[in-house]
Structure formats: C-alpha cells, structure tokens
Amino acid sequence: HQILAHQLMLQLNYIREKKDEAIERLAIKNFDAKAIIEQVLELDNDRKRTQNELDSLLNEANIIAKQVGDLFKQGKKAEADELKNKSIAVKESSNKLAEQLKSIEEQQHKLLVQVPNTPSFKVPKGKTPADNETVFQEGEIPKLHAGAKPHWELAEQYDLIDFELGVKLTGAGFPVYKGKVARLQRALINFFLDKATTAGYLEIQPPIMVNEASGYATGQLPDKEGQMYHATIDNLYLIPTAEVPITNIYRDVIVKTNQLPIKMCGYTPCFRREAGSYGKDVRGLNRLHQFDKVEIVQITHPEKSYQTLEDMREYVAGLLRDLELPFRILKLCGGDMSFASALTYDFETFSGAQEKWLEVSSVSNFETFQSNRLKLRFKDGDSKPQLAHTLNGSALALPRIVASLLENNQTPEGIKIPKALVPYTGFDLIN
Questions:
Q1: Sign of the C-alpha dihedral, residues 50, 55, 59, 61?
Q2: CA distance 148 to 309
Q3: Phi/psi zone of residue 217: left (φ > 0), alpha (ψ -120 to 50 degrees), beta?
Q4: Quick check: 41 pLDDT over 60?
Q5: How far apart are the C-alpha atoms of 417 and 429, rounded to whole Å?
Q6: Distances from the Cα of 224 to the Cαs of 44, 113, 231, 340, in angstroms?
Q7: Which among 22, 130, 183, 344 could bridge 364 via Cys, Cβ 3.0 to 4.6 Å?
Q8: Alpha-carbon distances of 12 from 22, 115, 399, rounded to whole Å
C-alpha cells in the first residue's frame, strides 16, 4: 500500500500539472491517454474530498477525546458518557470514509498502472518496426560460399543443437545444446561478463524467480503478466531478464549521490512465454522460450542518464565489434517501444544465410518510471531525496548471436570462431 500511494502521488502530480503534455507524449507511443487521465483526475477530486472529510472527522474525534478526559477529571461522568457515545458514532463514520478512501486509491491505481512511461521527446513517431530510425551501421554484409546453410541446418550437420530433443524434454522453444556449441555458449557468457566487469560493472548472480512486488517495480506487471511463466502455488515468476532481480536490489533504498552511478551486470537464463511457434521468423534460435543473456544495469543521476545511455550504446557496439559481426543501431519509434521505456536503442546483426537483420540487444533509459515504482532515491545530507534514473541493456542475448556467428563464419571446412572467443572456447573451428 505504501508503494501504491507513493506512485499515485508522483504520477498524479505530473498529470495534474502537465495534463496536455502527458497526453501528447503518450500519443507518441500510440496510447490514447485522454479518457483514462480524465478518469484519474475525477477520482483524484473524489480522493481529496474524502480525505478532507476524514481529516475533519479525525480532528473532531481528537477534540471529543480531550473533552471526555476533562469531564471525567471534573467528575461529570454522565456528560462524559454522552460524549463517548458521540465519539463512537464519529469513529464509525471515519472508518467508513477510510474504506471509501482506500477504494478510490485502488481504483486510481488500477488505472495508473495501465499507463505506459511517457516517452522522451527524442523518440521518433511511428506505429511499427518499419518506422524505427536507423542511426548507425557498421561492418560488411557477409558474402557466403555457395550452398551456405541457415544455423538450424548447420546445427544438424555438425550435431550442435537438438531442437526435437528439446521438444521431447520440455516443448518447442527449449533447445538442447551439445558439444562445441554448448562450450561456445559458455564462452560467450564468460566473455561478456569479463568485458562488463572490466568496464566497472559489479557482477551479480541473482535468483531467476521473483515475487510479484519485484515484477511490479520494474514494470513487467501488470503489463506483461501473460508473457511470464508463473509458479502459481508460490506466486513467483520466472524472470524474462536479469534486469528484474538486479534492479530490485535497490527497491526501497535511498543511496548517497556520491554512490552514483551504480553499475551492475549479471548472467541468467531468461524465460518468455510469448515466443511463438510458427513460421520462418521463429525457426531455430530466432525465438525461444528459454535463452541465456548477460544484462547490464545502471542507476544514475537524472542529469547524466542520457549520456549514460549513449555510453551503454557504445559499450554494446564494442562487443559486436569484438565478435566481428556487422551490426546496425535503431532508435525505436513510439509504437515499437516497451511499456516502461522512455528511449530505446535496438541492436541488430546481419544473419548471412537467412539474409536478414536479427535483434540481439535493446538498451533503454527508463528515466524515473522504474525508480518511482521501486522507491529508489538518492540524496545528500539533509537534502530532500530525489528519484534516480534507471537504465539497462542486453550485453548480450545469446541465441541470435550464436545464430549469426554460425551462419556468418561458415566455410566449406567448418565454422570459424572469432579471435576474441578462442581463449574462451579453446578451439578456433567447429567441424
């Protein structure tokens, strides 16, 4: 209830003071906020009126209590008892008002949690991925030899990934990695973690299940409730990304300004229910229900968060350069952004055999959207606490990286391993 009230007040202040701006910015995400904001403000008037009535009754109850005490001291028991009866009636009325107030706040909360984060004005307008803006591209598109194969055929040829065995053990979207590609996965995880720790990120090994409060605080709930695996008996959720448990480390925490930025990274398996199961776009490793990923998270001062976003963008670009993969960076349009993001860059690598771009990372600034829900603040001395900004990014997600590495580096002799990974794999060719 404290988190609920805290979020209500901060969102309501913004909506009250800048109603038209909020509607305009949310329209960039193709979210028509006018009706819901009108409802929220109407409920807010009810909330304030009810709160005033309740405060008045509570004040009256305090006055009566003092009068009763004084009358008893004066030996006027009959008058004191009469006032006590009035006090009971006032208490019953105040209890009813308190219940009304709680109901109004819950109605407001149900509406407010449906409202996405307001996007940055830097976000391009658009409805679909076709409207995303390409802001950078680097590397040559690979020219493969005749007879080059997509990664699912390479996996079969070299006995690397068994998709059918995964179906037998669990279901579609849960592949079994074997031999050299299993080692390649482990090599990539260690390589990404070493890079992150060298860049000043503290490695965290978090739980891979979280409670409802954690899912709510980072914006997965209620927006992605149907997209997460839910262990219903214990009311725990399998994480869609390490962002959720790592960011929640700082839920209900006030940090000192000189502790910022806080940089954390972590490797976890990730779980997505919505992966899909039909068509070439979900073939092989293109879309999975379970996959491995190294995540980077930063908590920053609001004045520095957009420079931090650019720094994180350049960091992910450096990883793709190390892997010798051609890539491009997209600034996502409003219609393709996540519920919680204020600005997102997507990274895509070119998959040679499939002849298309595959998304391998998203790097996002959430501004105060998550920290508001988290009650994550910073302060110095006796100064008033302020909300920090949170950011995160995939650095990197493995399935499509593995797909691109297998496809782009295939030769008639075998699949070459990028030089940066050889110390981690212990081999330079899969054959």
A1: positive
A2: 37
A3: alpha
A4: yes
A5: 6
A6: 27, 12, 15, 11
A7: 344
A8: 11, 12, 41
